[in-house]
């Protein structure tokens, strides 16, 4: 790291590779650094939490994801794309509100990349859309992703398709619906809190207005599995009744 720290474009972000058992948020799972000294210092700190963290240039722009299931011949059996509409933390994190989209450019890049890697199984290829309207590759995650429910709601049931692939059942390339939106309500409320703390009042209010949009589905709540869904909603309602009010009061002081 000492050898390359001077060559990195700053600001940059250092992220741990494996998040298990590490609390979320800055200084735990990631750190934004502004110069070589900070880069070396925080690389060492995060390396001690999880060996060999990732260093990425910060790209200003919206986040997009390409998701795929590849067979043993490294041929795509299912593909999907989403656009991150909101994240928590709002400076960059998992989706709290996302939408299914069809983006040929990232599909083309994603398929070529995974085929060249002789990929087998599921993958998430993460992109940022930069200021000159070009997708910039950020990373590949070789696992299921937090917004998997959006793919399922849109018509691509990746877990079930992976099961079918594993037992040798054949199926054609799966298509999906565009314009489907889901939110993760508990995280979305935290995003609203973040917006209000940072004086982005309109963005914070938009989160609560979206609560009344019947076209936005929840990524966790399901009538098919009522008990955990109700516990999830109870915890979410606790946040609705306390945290946003407190933060709004502070923001308007």
Q: What characteristics describe this protein?
A:
globular, single chain, 253 residues, D-amino Acid Aminotransferase, Chain A, domain 1, alpha+beta, three-stranded antiparallel β-sheet, seven-stranded mixed β-sheet
Give the N-to-C terminal Cα separation. Answer: 44 Å
Largest sheet: 7 strands, mixed
CATH architecture of the largest domain: 2-Layer Sandwich
CATH topology of the largest domain: D-amino Acid Aminotransferase, Chain A, domain 1
User: What is the CATH superfamily classification of the largest domain?
Assistant: ATP-grasp fold, B domain
Tally the helices. Answer: 8
Rg over CA atoms, rounded to whole Å, is 20 Å
| Uncertain runs | none
Please bin the fraction of helical residues.
Answer: 25-40%
Beta strand %: 15-25%
Principal-axis shape:
globular
Q: Provide the CATH top-level class of the largest domain.
A: Alpha Beta
> What string, H for helix and E for strand, traces the elements in order?
EEHEEEEHEEHHEHHEHH
Query: What structural class is derived from the secondary structure elements?
Result: alpha+beta
Describe this protein's structure.
- By secondary structure, this protein is α+β, with helices and mostly antiparallel strands.
- α5 packs antiparallel against α6, α5 (185-197) packs parallel to α7 and α5 packs parallel to α8 (243-251).
- The protein contains eight helices and ten strands.
- It has three domains: 5-57, no CATH class; 63-181, ATP-grasp fold, B domain (D-amino Acid Aminotransferase, Chain A, domain 1, 2-Layer Sandwich); 184-251, no CATH class.
């Amino acid at each position: 790291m000492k050898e390359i720290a001077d060559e990195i474009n700053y600001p940059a972000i250092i992220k741990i590779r494996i998040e298990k058992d590490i609390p979320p948020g800055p200084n735990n799972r990631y750190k934004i650094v502004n110069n070589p000294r900070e880069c070396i210092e925080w690389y060492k700190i995060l390396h001690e939490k999880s060996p060999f963290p990732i260093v990425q240039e910060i790209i200003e722009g919206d986040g997009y994801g390409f998701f795929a299931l590849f067979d043993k011949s490294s041929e795509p059996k299912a593909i999907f794309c989403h656009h991150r509409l909101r994240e928590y933390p709002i400076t960059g994190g998992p989706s709290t509100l996302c939408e299914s989209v069809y983006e040929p450019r990232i599909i083309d890049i994603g398929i070529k990349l995974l085929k060249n890697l002789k990929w087998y199984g599921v993958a998430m290829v993460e992109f940022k859309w930069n200021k000159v309207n070009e997708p910039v590759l950020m990373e590949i995650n070789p696992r299921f992703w937090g917004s998997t429910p959006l793919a399922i709601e849109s018509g691509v049931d990746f877990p079930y398709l992976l099961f079918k692939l594993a037992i040798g059942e054949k199926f054609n390339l799966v298509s999906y619906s565009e314009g489907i939106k889901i939110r993760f309500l508990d995280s979305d409320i935290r995003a609203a809190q973040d917006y209000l703390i940072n004086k982005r009042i309109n963005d914070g209010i938009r989160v609560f207005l979206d609560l009344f949009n019947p076209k936005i589905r929840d990524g966790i709540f399901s009538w098919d599995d009522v008990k955990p869904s109700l516990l999830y909603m109870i915890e979410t309602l606790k946040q609705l009744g306390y945290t946003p009010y407190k933060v709004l009061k502070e923001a308007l002081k």
